[in-house]
Every structure is written in structure tokens, then in C-alpha cells.
Amino acid sequence: MSFRATALSFAYGLRDATFDLPVSGFVTIAGPNGAGKSTLLGILAGLRHPYFGECQYRGIEIRRWRRRDFARQVAFLPQSMKLEFPFTAEQVVFMGRAPYADGWFESQQDHDAVARAMTTTDTTAFAARDFRSLSGGEKQRIILASALAQEPETLLLDEPTTFLDLKHQLAMYKLLSALAKKMLIVAVTHDLNLALRFSDRVIVMEDGRIAAQGPPGEALAPNVIDRVFGVHAELRDGWLVYDA
Length: 244
Fold this sequence. Notes:
alpha/beta, 24% strand
């Protein structure tokens, strides 16, 4: 197991969450606004504390990990990144190497990791451009490249397709699905059809609690969607169709 949570709670937004996550695979966290999705992801990323109950990564309680060591294992992608200074896209990706920094200069390993990350995310073409000049979708891919440059074993993403059009949403989820064959990907999403199509497992949140979890077809069954989201849905040809 990678993450293991038992009766995990937070001062607000999360109550009595219990689950185990594998070392690889694509896990999505879905639920209405205010359901506790980002709170849960923040705890997994080591950014929300103090929490109550247990939450372990690789058998060690998250609060006991040394931050530098944890950052080499787990990368977190926020919805957006604001930079006021004129960093190039490549320089932003190099920021992902911070957990490995040893002195003022980048090592050959740093350069190799950045090159691989930018190739994987198809961002090499605008490496020299000012990050601030990029479109929302391009920025999102650079942020992903920065996380991949950390060479983590687990990748946590908060709404990774927020600024992407439909074509690039699908491309992002295809990329994440491919990456999940060798690492654990955990992503918060509002798009139930993307979760249904690409996830190996879905955790559905409601009012700070886990309402359902399991394979996508079970966790996102029409009766669960009706109860949690208050929307009637039917499964047609592998896609959820909602009543107007």
C-alpha cells in the first residue's frame, strides 16, 4: 500500500475517512462543492494539519516524514500557480528539482529529469517562453512537468483540467492514465465521465465523508450519483447521461 487512512478527520471538511491506496494506478476523488475533496488531498500532500486519526504513507505517519524526503516521494499540483517574476517555462520546471538541490547549480541529473518531464508533457517547444505569457492549458502542463521533474512515486493533483478545453482534458487524462501504470496518481475532479472512463478507482465524497469507493462502475453507479449529487443519471455506452 502507499496511503493508508483510518478514521481520518480534519477540523473542517473531513470526517472518519478510511481507505487504502495502491502503489500504482489512477484514483480520482469526486463529489459536490464543499464535499471535502481538496481537504482530503491536502492531508495526503502533507499540507493540512493537524489531522485526527491515522494517515500513513509507505507505513510512516505523514506528520512524521521529513519534508525533504516526503517531497522526493510525493508531488502535489495545485489548480494554478501564480508567478510575478519573468521565469521561463523551463525554469519553472526546474523548480520541481528543489527537493534534490545541493548548492547553487543544477546537476546533470537535474537537467536530465527536466528534459524527460518536458518531453512527457509535450512542453519542450515553449521551454524558453515567459511562463506568464502561456495559456492556461500550457501553464497547467508546465506545472505537471515541474511535478514530474521531482521524479515522485505518487502524484497528487487538484482539478488538473480546470483550464483545459475538451481536447486537452482528454489528452491530460490519457497522459495521467499512462503514467499511472508505473506510479500512483490521485486527482480531484468534478468531471464524472472522465473519472468513469480513466480511473482505476473512485472515491466519492459527500459532506466530508466517503459516500462510496471502489471501481468506477460501482462508485459512480446511477443510484450513488442520484443520492450524492441530486442528479438522475443513466449509463449509456460507457458514459453517464444526465437528465435535464
